[in-house]
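Re: your question from the hallway

Yes, I did run it. Sequences:
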Amino acid sequence: MKIKVINPNTYLAMTKSIDIIAKKCARPGTEIMCISPERGPITIEDNYDEALATIGAIEEVKKGMQENFDGYVIACFRDAGLYACRELTEVPVIGMAEASFFLACMLGHKYSIISILDRFKSSMEELLKKYGLDSRCASIRCTNVPVADFERDRAKGEAALIETGQKAIEQDGAEVLCLGCDGMVGFDQVMERTLHVPVIDPVVAAVKMAEAVIETGKKTSKIMTFKSPEKKEIVGYSSIFQI
Amino acid sequence: MKIKVINPNTYLAMTKSIDIIAKKCARPGTEIMCISPERGPITIEDNYDEALATIGAIEEVKKGMQENFDGYVIACFRDAGLYACRELTEVPVIGMAEASFFLACMLGHKYSIISILDRFKSSMEELLKKYGLDSRCASIRCTNVPVADFERDRAKGEAALIETGQKAIEQDGAEVLCLGCDGMVGFDQVMERTLHVPVIDPVVAAVKMAEAVIETGKKTSKIMTFKSPEKKEIVGYSSIFQI
Amino acid sequence: MKIKVINPNTYLAMTKSIDIIAKKCARPGTEIMCISPERGPITIEDNYDEALATIGAIEEVKKGMQENFDGYVIACFRDAGLYACRELTEVPVIGMAEASFFLACMLGHKYSIISILDRFKSSMEELLKKYGLDSRCASIRCTNVPVADFERDRAKGEAALIETGQKAIEQDGAEVLCLGCDGMVGFDQVMERTLHVPVIDPVVAAVKMAEAVIETGKKTSKIMTFKSPEKKEIVGYSSIFQI
Amino acid sequence: MKIKVINPNTYLAMTKSIDIIAKKCARPGTEIMCISPERGPITIEDNYDEALATIGAIEEVKKGMQENFDGYVIACFRDAGLYACRELTEVPVIGMAEASFFLACMLGHKYSIISILDRFKSSMEELLKKYGLDSRCASIRCTNVPVADFERDRAKGEAALIETGQKAIEQDGAEVLCLGCDGMVGFDQVMERTLHVPVIDPVVAAVKMAEAVIETGKKTSKIMTFKSPEKKEIVGYSSIFQI
Amino acid sequence: MKIKVINPNTYLAMTKSIDIIAKKCARPGTEIMCISPERGPITIEDNYDEALATIGAIEEVKKGMQENFDGYVIACFRDAGLYACRELTEVPVIGMAEASFFLACMLGHKYSIISILDRFKSSMEELLKKYGLDSRCASIRCTNVPVADFERDRAKGEAALIETGQKAIEQDGAEVLCLGCDGMVGFDQVMERTLHVPVIDPVVAAVKMAEAVIETGKKTSKIMTFKSPEKKEIVGYSSIFQI
Amino acid sequence: MKIKVINPNTYLAMTKSIDIIAKKCARPGTEIMCISPERGPITIEDNYDEALATIGAIEEVKKGMQENFDGYVIACFRDAGLYACRELTEVPVIGMAEASFFLACMLGHKYSIISILDRFKSSMEELLKKYGLDSRCASIRCTNVPVADFERDRAKGEAALIETGQKAIEQDGAEVLCLGCDGMVGFDQVMERTLHVPVIDPVVAAVKMAEAVIETGKKTSKIMTFKSPEKKEIVGYSSIFQI
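Structure:
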């Protein structure tokens, strides 16, 4: 089984971390290829970044279609471009956020999302409503530590994550925590040791869900929302974007 | 007052029609500039098209920021790129869909959306949930007449719109109809004569709402969802996309 | 364009303030006539007051029907009598609360209502549910300063409004504030200078929305909820209330 | 126990029918006084009627406060004036609609409301949302037989009720039917014989709920929504309406 | 009228207390028989306990069917086995929780549930959603005092209940409090004296609602959710469980 | 990895079919043990059956705890006993219904449940609300073919499933179909060939989700909803049910 893991931002150090985690959690028979697009913002922190990054995600799925992947993971907690990418191919395309939510729902009744900046909240709420999953979400709590700092100063990142997770548990009733950013990858186990609740690494969630969906042999439904894009004239985009 | 009306697709005949309607409904003191981006799909019919068109909408707001517009209208019934564009500028940016919904809510208790293809339904539902307006929407009904046909064969378009509107009124309880596509622009009055309910032209709705919001003198809130995009490295996009 | 602004309470000093704001924000071509009914409570603070005030609002629309108004504004944040008044006439009737909510939704993703007494909360919630707008409302916060005090001691009123608005922003995630009482009219700009978010004056919102709706030329839908009242015997009310 | 049953319309034949049913279903120790207000519309079929009838209902509770009633029933399926009346007194005030919904919920999982005119639907939906009971309601179906006809031509009324009820059961999944109008009083048993589901007479529901609530000895909560109306100047209303 | 009150746990002291309250609040003509099943957990504090207790509740309804009861009360605030028991008999079966919620809704606009352990919250939320009553519930607050302690140390229990109720009123907007456990029976009046809001004793609520429903003469709807259980082979259960 | 698949009914032919499918879809390293409890109804078609079957499911998890399973599957589309079983063990316990819903959500935007008898609808709705997944469910449609008939007359079963699925697709907008009963196991591929949408076999969904969750190494959250059952006296149950 070949899975292409698309980190839609262009932060290559983060792509490297995702690659390591993805390969570590994948099963022996699963081949992981983890990449960043050639174009896009270095991190995805607002609707503007997401719009630019979506084009990159699309381009990578388009490229992947020549390479016979069995499935794709969108490794961004906004699931940037997920619905557009699902239109392009019939093999499963799994978003990191949706996969985390589903996994969390099988481990506890209520989960909280640990996010970065306060401005992420409305995007997270929008995603939860789009997926119809808002009622299981106890809260969205933000560390307000910049993404890059998790890499630069792990002790600071760890402290912020534990403090934020603690509040979600004590004040909001969270039973499971979802790490809402690839920058937080690798902190799940240290948090679990202190907080005593399952902490979901979104890369792990997405890879395991992708493996499961691919193994069922089912393909994306092509009759309605995810029908192939309508054929039409597209101007100002390179040939790979033509339908 | 100067309003830039952005038709995010690249169908110039449609942009021309929008321009005519927008100028006709605008007040004497309102200057309308209606354009299409240089890049993008010729119509917007799926999530893929919307992703590509969003880049064009963003680019046009970016350009507009050098030209001192008092506000923007996104003239696409998916409100493509609306939230990203609101991040870019503090002057009001109004979506054609949201404006139609608000206007409809002031004219009747329940409205229906007359859309094009069945595959649009989930996008419309997503928009209604994002805006928190789903409970006033009686139904989303589709003509399944391709967009281009409304231009080519107006009699056919008119018949399809009236038949679909009739069902929304009789079977779903619609009291107001929202035309859910720029391609349907100009059909509102003929429909009203037959169906005896208000029919909302989305261009008119958006222009009138934009004028109203601009005249209040209020600016987009910049503390949370619509804060300016975070400064960062963006690769593979031209300089206009840099923050 | 002639708009009748009905303040459904009988507090004439407040009607005077509303008149000033309404005329100031109206466009040159808009003629504003702002009145209070002859009957009713001096302020509207509970369901009992609202029931009495509704009769006054109705009477004023009935009178207005002889005077060819192009539209009406109900200048009470409970939108007292709005749905009954819409049944009476086909010209637009706009509620101050609904107009504020719609305007707020075009300026930010989440808004809070700044209200007066805690007992108003359930009425506000009822209104939000009736309009299907509850999911965009971050919170309803009350100053617990009596209405009359805003007139008598503006410094106290200002301090209470700023403190309450601050909490809505910091604790509830409000991006826009709606002033939920005519008594708060005129405080929006001072609040904006301190709080750095748009603050909606409900009179301004209602007048601008009324102008916009009237200019579209659309009339209230008369097929269902807002059909004319059924003809019937009505006893114990003066002739103006007969249908 | 003394219960005042207020039929807020001025249709005395209907008041007489309500009186008979109420007395028949009341327990031996329950004294029923059933009246219509002196003012108001002869039937309540729209928001306009409801506004006028609410004043009558209020006046009758005000009068009742001198007569030591143990509770009140608002015998109108819009629960006209219910929340205002609850503010006036601490003894229980029960609405015919809410009582029917609660009773229906104890007899089946989903109920439908059998209403009169299509225009009632949005009022019924508003009531269900206000009460937070919409998810148990399978449908609101209307006979479109004028209220007066139920009295004049019982065979026609019966046929319309059975046909409408049948559709609610077969197409909407109703397990219980609520008769949504006092005009339908007395048809429950004939409907049950044909339709084999419980059919709720709203007068019976309200009287039995009132007896139950009164016997608990509990009073209406006076700390928030139903605090006594604020003391204030009220002009243009007779002395009984002063607080 | 004969009502069987089933306390589904096996704590006989609690059954005795329930019996006393039920008989005290019942009307002269109502005969109460209050029992515990022969099998089951001594208290019901989790989903596991509830599963075991449900079998006991079923068995007691099955037994009751030979004894011509006019109705049943499930005296457990999880309404353990309510829907299964309703399938077994056509006479009314009333849950203590649903009865409390309905009674609370007639006494105030928002109520809070005073529960025991934090782990009860998700069960309470599940119940509220199942009943479609979540929007009237201001909060679920837990005393975290073990059930048995209410019996052993009434002063401690009283203090915990008053403190928890106070928070529900002040922080959550509760206007009525529902005591969410049979162990709290008998504390309502002392709480009302301090907190000045109605406090619902669930045994009283259930008995009064049962009397009211039974007196209407209506039976449980047998066409859908509560049809009699399908006849089938059942192994490993005694003969009383056979259908 | 060792997974115990518990079919909570006592229909051994069905258990055999589940065993075959489960083993066929499991990965090489997964050891499946599929059993029925010793006690319980032969099929689960109502709340009564579910209550009895829950005890059997619990007993089998209790037994499994001595045998070092890595996870459990509850192979009943009501997820009978799921929450109680999760309290008992910290290894993952996966319900067939929840697993189907999550898988369906990754293959299409809206899914329908193909169920058996109309009376199942309210139980399905209850489950969807409990899981907070109702907004993705397009409809619940029932074949009204008895469970046993799917085994006895496969051609009839196939025809009923295809007809019901077709309606869900055409009338309700389903993009994915979930087979809502173990009796329908093995029909997914024949349905897919005719209907051209993914059809989810619930046994496959549950086994693949269980494998995925187990491989993440995460355990059920034990701080709140799924804490171990409280220790207490339990009478009338055999020793295996003691905590």
